[in-house]
Specification:
- The complex is a heterodimer of chains A (578) and B (419).
- With 578 residues, chain A is α+β, with helices and mostly antiparallel strands.
- Chain A folds into three domains: 41-219, no CATH class; 226-346 and 367-471, no CATH class; 483-567, 2-Layer Sandwich (Alpha-Beta Plaits).
- Helices cover 35% and strands 20% of the residues of chain A.
- Chain A has 18 helices and 24 strands.
- In chain A, strands 4, 5, 6, 7, 8, 12, 13, 15 and 16 form a nine-stranded mixed sheet that branches. In chain A, strands 9, 10, 11 and 14 form a four-stranded antiparallel sheet that branches. In chain A, strands 21-20-22-23 form a four-stranded antiparallel sheet.
- In chain A, helix 10 (373-388) crosses helix 13 (446-460).
- Chain B is of the alpha/beta class.
- Chain B has two domains: 2-185, 3-Layer(aba) Sandwich (Rossmann fold); 201-304 and 334-414, Rossmann fold (3-Layer(aba) Sandwich).
- In chain B, the strands form two sheets. In chain B, strands 2-1-3-4 form a four-stranded parallel sheet, with helices on both faces. Chain B has a four-stranded parallel sheet with strand order 6-5-7-8, sandwiched between helices.
- In chain B, helix 12 links the parallel strand 5 and strand 6 (291-296).
- The chains are: A alpha+beta (578), B alpha/beta (419).
- Chains A and B meet through helix 4, helix 15 and helix 18 of A and helix 8, helix 9, helix 14 and helix 15 of B.
Chain lengths: 578, 419
């Protein structure tokens, strides 16, 4: 065993030990949502509308509840709420409310036969609350027809405690549209999307000509930019504030250190003004930012905008699956919960594997540079620093080696923690971002602290977390087969090192590699490359670096563009001697 | 005695410079916009006046392109490249320096000794990067006479630690500049200087693009004169002069007036620095029917070729950009690993359609001589003829050089090389 292998072995051991230690840190709470249900009050109004629940902040209203019996589901079972009025929901309430009207006779479908009609209203408050969205079946004779909403895009139907297999149920949406839901063997239907549920949906089930069940279903929803939403975003706001304080403290501490070391006053200055303004140039940068903004919105509110059309796609980036509103699913959950993954049906495994392989091969870590919301957040932090003219932290090989080590720890945690009964989600900083912004009250454990670190480090060093991101690393592993490529013309390259200096991932080989098969187009793509294009932007040699996707050149280094950016917009008056 | 010595120096020095300028002017197709560049060289070497610069701005003598001009401009001074090419000064320096020292260093020591060149004498500070043994001893020798700042140059540049060390060297140099000028370094004045040089580089990029045109718009000897003049010109003025030259060349290109016929052998000059008035080689190449299409020398195009890439616009970020630019892309053979020079020459051969390479070695310039073998092997692989020319700072070898250059040009012309 040579010393290099020995070193690697020791590093691996240390990484595993650290990961084990981290397991104990997992349950350090950053912000936990507690007791959110007793806060709510319930009133019944007679307004002539169909039997339904509606929300106004914490006040729940039952419409046309005359003669209805209102139940709340608690841990001890179904509890009746007298008169349909209460100032606070019962303790141990699981967040499910149901109102049942006495059976009456009417001809609701106009076929000339009078049926016995049962009107039910149901609401689930727990949908936007905390980690796991668990279904609470009522399983009680008093509410015979049940509709449950276990996952976005899926409903479960049951009658008298038995799943309704292979039946047709009509769903009338809030806009009056009728959708036919056909259930499968297990009584599940996937005909509706989350947006249909959000507006309230009425299910009509006719087992035979003489019976009709009507159930109005509604989830508690935090409408974006409402007061409730702001409350849900609070933990993230808290994180931002703490990060801000950390950044200010860091900057001040550095100032003090610089002064103590006797560095020049200009260097110790916090804000360092510049006579040359930064000029952004249209092109790759714009496309990348456009894609990032679009995907940020899509991975947070995409479900609201476009429904669940893409929900089977598992996007392997650090968007959080606890956000049930995102456009796609996030494959990261299954990589970090392998034990749960193995319990899923084989068709799901195929979807996941297919999505991952397709994305990894088509785009590879281009997803990190163009799609990942966590990457976007870091880029925003970085741009903020540059705009404020605050000195960044320049990384070198030694610091990158530390990051690489941390990455191994993260990877061990990511893949292995579920095997010893933990959840990587307790560490994952993304858990603090996308669910909160989508209005989901997700409790944060160690991930809250991680998020602070992500923002602070991303502020001083562009895309710092990406260097230790386990999902990104996995995504980069099959880079050799990926269609996204970074290429270098080694003859045109002057080895000026600007690319390495600009690279947020510290990829040194991009500037040192010289030998290869075709030296005019050496592949310099590595596992770490996130295709952010910074190297190409800072490359002053025509065509020395370029990026291709499936052989199509996306962008290429150009001296003209480089010089245009360097000369910037000038305040000519200040150049007195010019 | 001393007065007679100075007098003799004056006459000879003036005569050589004048003669070189005359020969440059005598070449055909001299663009009109070249005049200010030649005037600058004439002013410094023939009229022996100080460089033109705004009042109250001290000049700082630099002895290598590795001294970032941005830093000097930022702190309210003007850089003047003092690497000497004077035969007369060389003769004077020959008495002080050991026999095997390179003529460049001897010329510098001669200028310093004879104390007759205002452009040299008026420098408030000398900045000497330790690039080779001769420069190291020169730095020590200058230190005893003048305020001198010595910059340690790393032997290699792939390690980040090397680059960080050179950044610290630049900070130290900035401190000595502040002592001279009283202007401390700030992010604001440094960014201004960056902008000033970036404008010059933008014009240089334009110039290079024009030079790459085929057939050629401007003779290499003219281009080298313009680049040499940069060493003694206030950067914004030089930018304006070059912009005018570019405009004229663009006009010529539109009119289809090329400087030389398309079939002249296109040569690349690389190797030891070619410093005015030591224009032996460029002039011989042009006069013997060749075309100096490009040069890869540090007093030529390379002196300003590489731009600094600002990644972090803070003061430290800009200093890192300077350190990076000064060392990493530099093709100076003083660095232990310098494969990039071969690639650079290869790229130039392609860009300028080079047919032959003239490898200039100043006597005693060991590092350049060392790299000849690798260059020769590379050229053999590419099928490009190369000739090694060793010269000294005197006119004795001119005739012998003339024959060799002529033969080399004939070889390319008629040697069946039909690139």
């Amino acid at each position: 065993m040579n010393s290099r292998m020995k070193q690697g072995f020791l590093a691996g051991l240390l990484a595993a030990a650290l990961a084990l230690l981290a397991w104990f840190a997992a349950n350090v709470p950053f912000y936990t949502w507690e007791d959110p249900l007793v806060r709510a009050s319930l009133t019944t109004v007679q307004d002539g509308e169909p039997l339904a629940f509606s929300y106004s902040d914490d006040a729940i209203t039952l419409h046309s509840g005359e003669g209805a019996t209102v139940y709340a589901l608690t841990e001890a079972g179904l509890v009746e709420i007298a008169d349909g009025e209460t100032d606070s929901l019962p303790e141990n309430c699981l967040g499910t409310l149901a109102a049942v009207k006495p059976v009456y006779s009417a001809d609701t479908d106009g076929d000339g036969v009078t049926e016995s009609v049962m009107d039910i209203a149901r609401t689930d408050m727990a949908f936007t609350y905390d980690y796991e969205h668990t279904v609470h079946p009522i399983s009680d004779d008093r509410v015979p027809f049940e509709v449950m909403y276990p996952r976005r895009g899926q409903f479960l139907f049951s009658l008298n405690g038995e799943a309704l297999a292979n039946v047709e149920i009509t769903a009338v949406l809030s806009d009056g549209r009728a959708v036919s839901c056909t259930t499968d063997e297990s009584g599940a239907s996937t005909a509706l999307s989350i947006n249909d549920v959000r507006g309230g949906v009425t299910f009509v089930y006719r087992p035979d000509e003489t019976r009709t069940f009507r159930l109005y279903y509604q989830i508690e929803d935090n409408t974006v930019f409402s007061l409730r939403w702001l409350k849900a975003v609070m933990p993230f706001t808290l994180i931002l504030l703490i990060a801000l304080v950390c950044i200010v403290l860091d900057v001040l501490a550095r100032k003090a250190v610089y002064k103590k070391r006797g560095l020049s006053e200009a260097r110790a200055r916090v804000f360092q003004p510049s006579a040359v303004k930064r000029r952004s140039r249209f092109g790759f940068e714009f496309v990348r930012w456009g894609a990032m903004i679009a995907s940020f919105a899509g991975l947070i509110w995409g479900g609201r905008l476009l429904g669940t059309a893409f929900s089977k796609v598992d996007l392997p980036v650090l968007a959080c699956p606890y956000n049930l509103d995102q456009l796609t699913s996030a494959g990261c959950y299954w990589f970090s919960h392998i034990t749960e993954l193995l319990e899923r049906p084989p068709s799901y495994l195929l979807w996941l594997a297919g999505s991952f392989i397709a994305f990894a091969l088509l785009f590879g870590r281009m997803l990190c540079g163009f799609v990942c919301p966590l990457g976007f957040l870091q880029d925003v932090a970085h741009e903020a620093r540059v705009a404020l003219r605050i000195e960044g932290v320049a990384f070198n090989e030694k610091l990158y080696a530390v990051l690489r080590f941390v990455k191994w720890v993260m990877l061990v945690l990511f893949l292995g923690i579920s095997l010893i009964g933990g959840s990587f989600c307790d560490f994952c900083p993304a858990a603090a971002l996308t669910p909160a912004l989508a209005g989901f009250k997700t409790s944060l454990y160690f991930s809250g602290f991680m998020m602070i670190a992500v923002i602070v480090s991303g502020f001083f060093k562009q895309r710092c977390f990406c260097n230790i991101c386990p999902m990104g690393y996995l995504l980069g592993l099959p880079h050799k087969a990926s269609l996204a490529r970074l290429k270098k013309d080694t003859v045109a390259c002057t080895e000026c090192g600007a690319c390495y200096e600009a690279c947020p991932m510290g990829i040194k080989s991009i500037f040192t590699v010289r030998e290869g098969k075709n030296e005019r187009a050496i592949d310099v793509t590595t596992t770490d490359c996130i295709f952010c294009g910074e190297c190409i932007r800072k490359c002053p040699e025509d065509g020395a670096l370029y990026m291709t996707l499936a052989g199509v050149k996306l962008c290429s280094a150009s001296r003209e563009a480089f010089m245009r950016e360097q000369t910037g917009i000038i305040n000519r008056k200040r150049d007195k001697n010019g | 005695m001393e007065a007679r010595r100075r007098d003799r120096f004056d006459r000879r020095q003036t005569a050589t410079a004048e003669k070189t300028l005359r020969r440059v002017r005598a070449l055909t197709h001299c663009p009109q916009a070249l005049t200010p560049f030649l005037d600058t060289l004439s002013r410094v070497f023939v009229d022996r006046q100080d460089v033109v610069h705004p009042k109250g701005v001290p000049t700082v003598g630099t002895y290598c392109v590795m001294v970032p001009p941005e830093l000097i401009y930022a702190q309210g001074a003007m850089p003047v490249k003092l690497c000497g090419g004077s035969y007369t000064a060389f003769a004077v320096g020959d008495d002080t320096a050991p026999r095997d020292a390179c003529p460049l260093v001897k010329a510098v020591m001669g200028f310093e000794d004879i104390d007759a060149m205002p452009a040299y004498q008026n420098c408030a500070l000398m900045a000497v990067p330790v690039t080779c043994d001769c420069k190291k001893k020169l730095a020590g020798w200058l230190q005893e006479r003048r305020p001198t700042s010595i910059l340690h140059v790393p032997a290699n540049r792939d390690r980040d630690a090397d680059m960080e060390r050179f950044t610290r060297e630049l900070y130290a140099f900035s401190d000595s500049l502040a002592e001279i000028t009283g202007v401390p370094l700030t992010s604001e004045n440094l960014s201004m200087a960056f902008h000033r040089l970036a404008e010059a580089q933008t014009q240089l990029s334009r110039f290079i693009d024009l030079r790459r045109k085929h057939p050629t718009l401007i003779r290499g000897a003219f281009a080298m004169a313009a680049m040499n003049a940069m060493s003694y010109t206030w950067a914004p003025s030089w930018t304006k002069q070059l912009a005018r030259l570019n405009d004229e060349l663009e006009g010529l290109a539109r009119a289809g007036t090329m400087a030389v016929k398309g079939n002249q052998p296109r040569l690349l000059l690389t190797g030891s620095p070619v410093i005015f008035p030591n224009f032996k080689l460029p002039l011989l190449i042009e006069e013997m029917g060749g075309l100096l299409a490009a040069d890869e020398t540090c007093m030529g195009e390379r002196g300003l070729y590489d731009p600094p890439a600002i990644v972090d616009p803070s003061l430290n970020g800009m200093m890192r950009a300077l350190a990076n630019r000064a060392t990493r892309p530099c093709t100076c053979p003083t660095f232990a690993d310098n494969r990039r020079r071969l690639y650079r020459v290869r790229q130039m051969i392609e860009d300028y359609r080079i047919q032959g390479v003239v490898y200039h070695v100043l006597r005693g310039c060991l590092v350049y001589d060392y790299e000849y073998a690798a260059m020769e092997a590379e050229m053999e692989r590419l099928g490009i003829p190369i000739i090694r020319v060793e010269t000294d700072y005197n006119e004795e070898d001119v005739e012998q050089l003339r024959i060799r250059i002529e033969a080399f040009i004939e070889l390319i012309k008629y040697g069946g090389n039909d690139r």
